[in-house]
Design brief:
Order of helices and strands: HHHEHEEHEEHHEHEHEEHEH
Number of strands: 10
CATH superfamily of the largest domain: von Willebrand factor, type A domain
CATH topology of the largest domain: Rossmann fold
Helix content: 40-55%
Strand content: 15-25%
CATH class of the largest domain: Alpha Beta
Oligomer: single chain
Radius of gyration: 21 Å
């Protein structure tokens, strides 16, 4: 039976700690390094950053993997070859709409989602996958096509770290637009709170599946949204529409929690029917929970 790696990392890489560090690249790299080291210590084998052998250089090979020591001894060019050297295009599709601002400090969904995407970009790059990024709200706001260079990774991280406004978004129709912009088959990773009608959301996921993409959905919610762990009078504000509702927390907590779980379950069931992986994350969970789901999905593609 497989055991989850990184028990110590789970304690160190808590959302509360990482939220205090502002260097996105530094934090993402640190988390991914710890995650990869944990995988190497775990029963998982054949992780695709493991060196396997050499082969002769062919035109078009990535020069970063040349073995210059062998060249010096044999006067021939050889490329380092790795286990599971099958590449895939990884498309990160990140929701930056108004509702992603919910939460304070270490529990803000946007902070958590951005760091998750940065970690996934680093991890995909280590696996020599091409990585792309799409930022959306009511429309697609930025699109970086999938590429595998180190400079491109830095461009993705810079885009993720950019301070920006959070436009309102009421409909998942934008995901149809995003799907049309990713014609080449790959792994689409949607990171969002999924504040949409499940039927409309699932129809947009069908669009990605129509193009042959494998799809992994990370639904990011704050603990407050999952269970309303507060008491007394509360004012509920719709982050997308601005609508307000004043009520007493204890009077609606049970019905609210049931409605949220029903909504999440409807999305989850619909994703399963479409062979889409759906993972619901809370912002108080360590990020390697999501990285393990990505790694498992990425491994099972081949």
């Amino acid at each position: 039976m497989m055991t989850a790696p990184l028990v110590k990392l789970s304690e160190l890489a808590s959302p509360k700690l990482i939220s205090s560090v502002q260097d996105l690249d530094l934090v993402a790299r640190w988390i991914v390094e710890g995650f990869v080291n944990g995988l190497h210590r775990s029963p998982y084998v054949g992780f695709s950053v493991d060196f396997a052998s050499h082969r002769e250089y062919m035109a078009g090979d990535d020069l970063r993997h040349l073995n210059w020591k062998l060249y010096g001894r044999h006067d021939r060019l050889y490329i380092k070859q790795y286990d599971a050297e099958t590449n895939v295009d990884v498309h990160l599709v990140l929701d930056i709409s108004g509702s992603m601002k919910v939460g304070d400090g270490n529990e803000q969904k946007m902070r958590y989602a951005v760091l998750l995407c940065a970690c996934l970009a680093h991890l995909a790059s280590r696996q020599r996958d091409a990585v792309g990024l799409t930022l959306f709200a009511d429309t697609v706001l930025e699109k970086l096509s999938a590429r595998g260079s180190a400079d491109h990774l830095l461009q993705i991280l810079a885009s993720l770290a950019q301070p920006r406004a959070y436009p309102r978004a009421k409909s998942p129709q934008v995901l149809h637009e995003a799907a049309e912009l990713i014609p080449r088959r790959g792994l689409v990773i949607l990171v969002s709170d999924l504040y949409y009608e499940p039927s409309e959301l699932l129809a947009s996921l069908d669009h990605f599946r129509h193009f042959g993409h494998d799809v992994l959905v990370f639904q990011v919610l704050s603990p407050l949204e999952r269970s309303m762990p507060i008491d007394g009078a509360v004012k509920l504000v719709d982050a997308e529409t601005g609508e307000e509702l004043e009520t007493l927390a204890h009077e609606i907590r049970d019905s609210y929690t049931q409605a949220v779980e029903k909504w999440i379950d409807e999305i989850h069931t619909g994703c399963l029917a479409r062979d889409v992986d759906h993972v619901c994350l809370s912002t108080d969970q360590p990020l390697e929970v999501a990285l393990m789901d990505y790694f498992t999905k990425r491994t099972h593609l081949f």
